[in-house]
Every structure is written in C-alpha cells, then in structure tokens.
C-alpha cells in the first residue's frame, strides 16, 4: 500500500476531504490498529463522532482499512494490504491482542487454521483472535 494518504485516496477514487486525510494520516503514522475512541482522542475537536464513523465506514468499504473484533465486543481498525479493493478484503490473518498494553497486532505470517465445516455449510469469512502478552509486555519468542 502506498504510504502517502492523498495517493491512497486518489487510487480508491475518493475525494480528498480534511477528515479522510487526517484520519488516514493517523493510521499511516501509528502503524497499529486503532479504535474509534483512539481516533477521537487523537483528532481532538476537529471532527465529531459521526464524521469519524462515516470516514471509517468509507475506508472499510473501499478496501483501505479492515475491521478487527476485540475481546470486549468493540471494533478496531487496521490498514489493509495492497490487494484489498472496494468490496473485496483479503486481510485473512490472525490478530493478536495484548492483555497488558491492549495493543492489537496483525500477524500476517501466521497461517490460519484449516476448518472443516459440516456438509451444507460454506464459510466466507473467518476471524482468529489470539490474546496474551506481546513481546514488549513480557511475552517470549
């Protein structure tokens, strides 16, 4: 994925608005998963909750960011890889949530487990969340 926010917005045929630009720059700068509350805190009074929500939804719909469910039933968002496009996410990887610092990591090099579904079932999407301690908080390699 390009590292310039304006380029990303133009490649996805989205108009470059102040909210889209600033929120996308935040994802590019932080390089970690962010919650709606994280974005609100970082942008201060620049944008209201609805503007942030709509911007995040637009980014998800256009393959810029993907959703990460969390253990407390909230959602975080992370940048997509280059092969995600409007309506087609290809971010099929394990997510790790640290129980100590609460950071969320995309573990793209960890293979997803093979799931054998019963006859008559078709899986279209799978979420794998692993929780524990990250390297910085005492996890070991």
Could you explain the architecture of this structure?
The structure is a single chain. By secondary structure, the chain is α+β, with helices and mostly antiparallel strands. It has one domain (5-137): Winged helix-like DNA-binding domain superfamily/Winged helix DNA-binding domain (Arc Repressor Mutant, subunit A). The chain contains four helices and six strands, in the order ααβααβββββ. It has helices spanning 5-11, 18-30, 36-43, 49-61; strands spanning 34-35, 65-69, 75-79, 94-98, 104-107, 128-132. The strands form two sheets. It has a three-stranded antiparallel β-sheet. Strands 5-4-6 form a three-stranded mixed β-sheet, with no helix packed on it. It is globular and about 45 Å long.
